[in-house]
Design goal:
Blueprint lengths: L3 E5 L6 H11 L3 E3 L3 E2 L14 E2 L2 H9 L3 E6 L5 E5 H9 L3 E5 L2 H10 L3 E7 L2 H11 L4 H15 L7 E4 L3 H19 L6
Parallel strand pairs: 1-7, 1-8, 2-7, 3-4, 8-9
Antiparallel strand pairs: 3-6, 5-6
């Protein structure tokens, strides 16, 4: 059975950066595009960075059972993974990588056979610095994310693996090693 890799952790932990490095290093991986109700940023493309949905469309898809998981987040915005993304990636003979918030990752861990959950951790001071540098949220939203990060870091033990992102190269290598090991175990890695 093909694994589904679920990467989670607090906002600002570097999940996206590590996933980018992982996908560059391990052939056959594809990142699922999440859906969200948050506004599209100028540099983002619909269907590439996220599926940007209105609140009404998001609710309609929830009611239709189209989401594998979804969670409300800061300021009432919602994020989720459409089941069709998982199916699309499998149909392309690729291995799915999900970047999820904590609750969504736990739901996938419970419901999806072959899911491999990986928690990305970073020190709270470093998380705050990264969020402020990114400057895509207001100070109030950043403060909410920092408070949430503290709570989430206490739950790292609920996931199969934990990778500390204290150095991008080291953390990317650690994440790559976990994924390659699981691919070999599942018999889906080239040369295995």
């Amino acid at each position: 059975m093909r694994p589904v890799f679920v990467v989670t952790g607090p906002s600002g932990a570097g999940k996206g950066t590590l996933i980018k490095g992982l996908v560059e290093r391990v052939p056959g991986l594809e990142v699922a595009v999440s859906a969200t109700t948050r506004p599209q940023r100028p540099s983002e493309a619909d269907g590439h960075d996220y599926w940007f949905l209105s609140d009404e469309e998001f609710t309609r898809r929830i009611d239709g059972g189209e989401f594998l998981e979804w969670v409300p987040y800061v300021s009432g915005r919602r994020y989720g993974t459409l089941r069709s993304e998982i199916d699309r990636i499998a149909a392309d003979d690729q291995v799915c990588v999900l970047e999820l918030e904590l609750e969504g990752a736990l739901k996938v861990q419970e419901e999806v056979p072959g899911s491999v959950t990986i928690f990305i951790a970073a020190d709270v001071d470093e998380l705050e610095r990264r969020l402020r540098e990114r400057a895509t949220e207001s100070t109030g939203e950043i403060d909410e994310r920092i408070a949430l990060a503290r709570q989430q870091l206490e739950r790292a033990h609920e996931f199969r693996y934990m990778v500390r992102n204290d150095d991008i190269e080291r953390a990317t290598a650690a994440l790559t090693a976990v994924v390659e090991c699981e691919l070999v175990r599942a018999g889906t890695m080239a040369g295995s």
